[in-house]
């Protein structure tokens, strides 16, 4: 048996840089997300369309992932991450303008561009594992996910302080948080451009082409139906990535956990501010509840990553299903306005999402050969985003025609489906079933 290889100084530096960009990007993203539904309702004049702001952000993240992964496959992670943040800067400017001139079409277009920050944050977790030894993949990925905690918990609490800033700049009150978004995204761009060197994806390719034998044969780590693609040229085709996922039971389970977990979380989260506003909760309290939700999303992800490395992706996906189910039940039983029940439900909603995200991402990455990963990762983020976008759009209709409680019960059904799928899917060896069974993938490890 070969002992797991330690991380190198280069890998630690790359993870540290990604942590920094995630903190700044998280501030920018969550500051805007906290008031996205309220701004959409204010500009459109109807609660029916309130969910469309968040929905278009999610759709933007999904659609932007397509050109982003092609750019990454051709030129590396750094240009791709910068591309997403630049679009988010344009989106934040557009949202401020839309709120000022009260243009709902401009708000939707700008929301799509604002989703570029989510696309960059999502792809950063994959950049963290480009050079990771197999035994550390879950942990490295989860550390980058965790780092978003700092910015994302802080961001929603800027809703209150943003009011005087908006007044000083002559902006509507609900657009104030997007001024903080601008600053966060610009600083994230600077960190990525200056510090993300060497580019982790390009470095992984260089090492893969170096005539150094891997410590052990990793053929067992890749599902048999996709092994024949091992020697192909690296690519960023999302369509090809979807084909690779379909041939791998492990990757399919990972994709399902990602998509349904994200859909459940987004659909309930984007409607929570309206549910609270209906009970006359103040903006400051709404921002606090969203920040606690985001705390659940990110703060415990290192523990989630360690659990994936130790117990496997399937087990953590089942745990995520149970937590999301509990969160949905609590949300369904919460009265309008602010309540301890809703606060706990939103926290657990974030924690369950963390389990499905880390477990699903690790299974998707570990189940396919290195040359297929950019396309597969882009495809998984596209499906994840489209599912959440659809969930967010339908959520607004369900709340308008029914209630927030009905929405939470619908989310409960999809949360349960994740656990059922995890229990029924046959997984091969090395497919995220715990570190003891997982062998390294085909790219040689840095020495």
Oligomer: single chain
Biggest β-sheet strands, sense, barrel: none
**How many β-strand runs?**
0
Order of helices and strands: HHHHHHHHHHHHHHHHH
**How many helical stretches?**
17
Ends distance:
19 Å
**Beta-strand proportion:** under 5%
Class, according to the CATH hierarchy?
Mainly Alpha
Total domain units: 1
The CATH level-2 architecture is identified as: Up-down Bundle
Q: Going by CATH, what is the homologous superfamily?
A: MFS general substrate transporter like domains
Describe what you observe in this structure.
The chain has one domain (10-199, 233-424): MFS general substrate transporter like domains (Growth Hormone, Chain: A). The chain is globular, with a radius of gyration of 21 Å. The protein is built from 17 helices and no strands. It is mainly alpha-helical and 447 residues long. The longest helix has 36 residues, at 9-44. It starts with 8 loop residues before the first helix and ends in a 23-residue tail after the last helix.
């Amino acid at each position: 048996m070969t002992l797991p290889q330690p991380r190198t100084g280069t890998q630690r530096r790359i993870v540290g840089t990604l942590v920094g960009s995630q903190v700044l990007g998280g501030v920018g993203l969550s500051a805007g997300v906290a008031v996205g539904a309220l701004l959409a309702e204010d500009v459109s004049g109807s609660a029916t369309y309130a969910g469309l702001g968040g929905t278009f952000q999610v759709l933007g993240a999904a659609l932007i992932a397509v050109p982003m992964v092609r750019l990454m496959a051709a030129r590396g992670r750094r240009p791709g991450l910068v591309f997403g943040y630049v679009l988010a800067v344009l989106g934040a400017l557009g949202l401020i303008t839309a709120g000022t001139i009260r243009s709902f079409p401009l708000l939707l277009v700008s929301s799509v561009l604002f989703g570029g920050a989510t696309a960059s944050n999502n792809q950063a977790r994959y950049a963290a594992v480009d050079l990771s030894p197999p035994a550390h993949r879950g942990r490295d990925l989860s550390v980058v996910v965790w780092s978003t905690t700092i910015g994302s918990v802080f961001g929603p609490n800027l809703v209150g302080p943003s009011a005087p800033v908006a007044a000083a700049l002559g902006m509507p009150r609900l657009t104030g948080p997007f001024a903080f978004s601008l600053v966060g995204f610009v600083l994230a761009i600077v960190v990525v451009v200056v510090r993300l060197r060497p580019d982790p994806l390009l470095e992984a390719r260089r090492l893969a082409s170096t005539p150094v034998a891997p410590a052990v044969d990793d053929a067992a780590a890749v599902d048999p139906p996709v092994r024949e693609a091992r020697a192909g040229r690296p690519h960023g085709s999302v369509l090809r990535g979807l084909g690779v996922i379909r041939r791998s039971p492990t990757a399919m389970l990972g994709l399902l956990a990602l998509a349904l977990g994200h859909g459940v979380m987004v659909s309930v989260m984007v409607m929570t501010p309206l549910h609270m506003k209906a009970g006359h909760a103040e903006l400051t309290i709404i921002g606090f509840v969203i920040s606690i939700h985001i705390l659940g999303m990110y703060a415990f992800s290192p523990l989630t990553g360690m659990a994936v490395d130790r117990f496997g992706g399937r087990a953590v996906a089942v745990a995520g299903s149970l937590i999301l189910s509990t969160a949905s039940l609590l949300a369904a039983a919460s009265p309008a306005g602010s309540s301890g029940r809703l606060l706990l439900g939103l926290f657990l909603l974030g924690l369950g999402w963390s389990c499905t995200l880390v477990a699903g991402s690790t299974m998707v990455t570990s189940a396919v050969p290195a040359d297929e990963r950019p396309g597969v990762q882009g495809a998984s983020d596209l499906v994840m985003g489209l599912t959440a976008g659809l969930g967010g759009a339908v959520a607004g209709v369900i709340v308008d025609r029914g209630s927030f409680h009905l929405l939470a019960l619908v989310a409960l059904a999809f949360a349960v489906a994740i656990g059922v799928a995890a229990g029924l899917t046959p997984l091969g060896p090395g497919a995220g079933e715990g570190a003891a069974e997982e062998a390294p993938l085909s790219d040689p490890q840095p020495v």
